[in-house]
């Protein structure tokens, strides 16, 4: 019975924390927990923008492949491979950045902020691919 009560208490505490984070004003985050939550939200938004840019860039690369001779095709495969290589690079680079506050409450926020920053940079690169030489 004590394990059941402990599990119930932990579940309730997690629900309260999640509920409290839903009400965080990221324009006025005050505690480390709020700032880390907001950094996570920022990264999720940046990641959503990245996914849109990637789809657009893939469309542009498919179009490029469509008019290239067979021996010159490969734009879509190259972009896919580049993106697959970039994701672990971003994650490890940001993990390294987190070592500035290793073990502290600031570390997760540093990692999430880094991911948002690098993701925005990658989104800009993908948007350039989509536009081509305009």
Task: Give the SSE map.
Elements: H1 2-22, H2 32-67, H3 75-98, H4 107-131
Report on the architecture of this protein:
This protein has 134 residues and is mainly alpha-helical. It has a single domain, classed as Substrate Binding Domain Of Dnak, Chain:A, Domain 2 (Up-down Bundle), CATH 1.20.1270.180. The chain has 4 helices and no strands. It has helices at residues 2-22, 32-67, 75-98, 107-131. The radius of gyration is 21 Å and the shape is elongated. The N and C termini lie far apart (68 Å). The relative contact order is 0.13. The model has no long low-confidence stretch (mean pLDDT 89).
| Average pLDDT metric | 89
Approximately what portion of the residues adopt beta-strand conformation? under 5%
- CATH C-level class is Mainly Alpha
Gyration radius (Cα, Å) is 21 Å
CATH 2nd-level architecture: Up-down Bundle
Query: What kind of sheet is the major sheet?
Result: none
Helix content: over 70%
Count of domains? 1
Q: Give me the secondary-structure category.
A: mainly alpha
Q: What's this model, at a glance?
A:
With 134 residues, the protein is an all-alpha fold.
Question: What are the salient characteristics of this protein?
Answer:
134 residues, mainly alpha, Substrate Binding Domain Of Dnak, Chain:A, Domain 2, 4 helices, 0% strand
């Amino acid at each position: 019975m004590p394990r059941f009560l402990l599990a119930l208490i932990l579940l309730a505490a997690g629900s309260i924390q999640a509920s409290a984070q839903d009400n965080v004003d990221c324009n006025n985050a005050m505690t480390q927990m709020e700032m880390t939550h907001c950094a996570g939200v920022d990264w999720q938004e940046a990641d959503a923008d990245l996914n849109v840019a990637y789809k657009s860039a893939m469309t542009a690369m498919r179009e490029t492949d469509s008019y290239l001779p067979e021996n010159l095709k490969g734009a879509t495969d190259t972009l896919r491979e580049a993106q697959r290589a970039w994701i672990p690079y971003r994650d490890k680079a940001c993990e390294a950045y987190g070592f500035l506050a290793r073990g502290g409450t600031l570390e997760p926020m540093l990692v999430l902020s880094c991911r948002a920053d690098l993701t925005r940079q990658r989104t800009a690169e993908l948007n350039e691919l989509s536009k081509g030489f305009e």
